[in-house]
Specification:
The complex is a heterodimer of chains A (about 120) and B (about 170).
Chain A lengths: L1 H18 L3 H10 L17 H15 L4 H12 L14 H26 L1
Helix pairs in contact in A: 2-3
Chain B lengths: L1 H24 L10 E5 L4 E4 L5 E3 H4 L5 E7 L4 H14 L4 E8 L3 H11 L5 E5 L3 H5 L7 E6 L2 E7 L4 H10 L2
Parallel strand pairs in B: 4-5, 5-6
Antiparallel strand pairs in B: 1-8, 2-3, 2-6, 4-7, 7-8
Classes of the chains: A mainly alpha (about 120), B alpha+beta (about 170).
Chain lengths: ~120, ~170
């Protein structure tokens, strides 16, 4: 019985959390990942420049039109290029960026593994 | 053996990180949009200044003519500076000028045109800046040379005499 009570409370808590995952969250997520092109070092979310204000309206409109996050990014990439996105996608220009941490992790792993093996011997 | 491996991997990591940083040193961090384009004009409908008429972009840019879309505003100082060049371009019969009035007060926009003259064949209104985004603009003034419903060139910032000569030679 106690287990069921616990289970129900967990389900309730997680469902309550889900109610916040609405359009507004998606909007914030997108505009936080967009670079304000006229104000260096700020995202569209942080900026109050004319460009950022307009871009916020465009993103809200596109969400209302039913476009997905990916579609909005590709729409903006067509207009302004890859530079507008903070989170670069995996392509031939960004292979190194994405794969280097994995490579370093693997090299580190090998070093640790080798030391561990030597110690065990 | 152990030391050799450690030395080799350290050098390898150092070389990779060094080359990335070295390469990035020469890369500018300032947004530089491409100005040579061959993009179709966006699809959008908009209001014409001083009327209730709604017109689509495909109706505005419908002929085989060259069009020059200029994003301007009465509060924008560089727009004031380049205005006389637009007046000069207006005299050319090979091109039609379209004004995109950006985030402006209508009364101020009219005063601006009364004072400096109206070079535009048609003026469309962009109250919230959404249309400027559709064109891929970042601010005012920005201009686009359009031919056969395609943007063939983009001019960021105010025009100058050299650019005017360049535009005139392009539309001959």
């Amino acid at each position: 019985m106690k287990f069921f009570k616990l289970l129900i409370s967990f389900v309730l808590i997680f469902n309550l959390n889900n109610t916040y995952a609405n359009d507004n969250d998606l909007n914030h997520k997108i505009i936080k990942n967009l670079r304000c092109l006229v104000c260096q070092g700020q995202s569209v979310y942080d900026s109050d420049s004319d460009f950022a204000i307009s871009l916020k309206i465009v993103v809200a409109n596109k969400i209302n039109e039913g476009l997905t996050e990916k579609q909005i990014y590709s729409y903006l990439k067509k207009k302004y290029g890859e530079w507008i996105l903070y989170d670069p996608e995996l392509n031939k220009n960004t292979y190194l960026l994405w794969l280097l941490p994995v490579l370093l992790f693997l090299i580190g792993g090998v070093i640790i593994f080798k030391r561990f093996k030597i110690k065990n011997k | 053996m152990k030391n050799k491996f450690f030395l080799f991997s350290s050098i390898f990591i150092f070389v990779i990180i060094f080359s990335i940083f070295y390469k990035s040193l020469h890369k500018t961090n300032i947004y530089t949009p491409s100005v040579k384009l061959d993009k179709k004009i966006p699809e959008y409908s908009t209001e014409v200044l001083n009327t209730d008429k709604i017109i689509s972009y495909s109706e505005i840019f419908d002929t085989e003519n060259f069009y020059f879309l200029n994003i301007w505003s009465s509060w924008c100082v560089p727009c004031r500076d380049e205005h006389y060049l637009l007046m000069e371009l207006h005299k050319d019969k090979n091109i039609k000028l379209v004004g995109l009035n950006y985030k402006d007060n209508i009364d101020n926009a009219q005063k601006f045109l009364k004072e400096l003259g109206n070079p535009f064949n048609i003026i469309i209104v962009d109250i919230d800046g959404v249309q400027a985004i559709e064109w891929g603009a970042v601010g005012v003034p920005e201009s686009f040379l359009i031919h056969k419903k395609k943007v063939i060139k983009k001019y960021i910032g105010p025009l100058d005499k050299n650019l005017l000569i360049q535009i005139k030679s392009l539309i001959k």
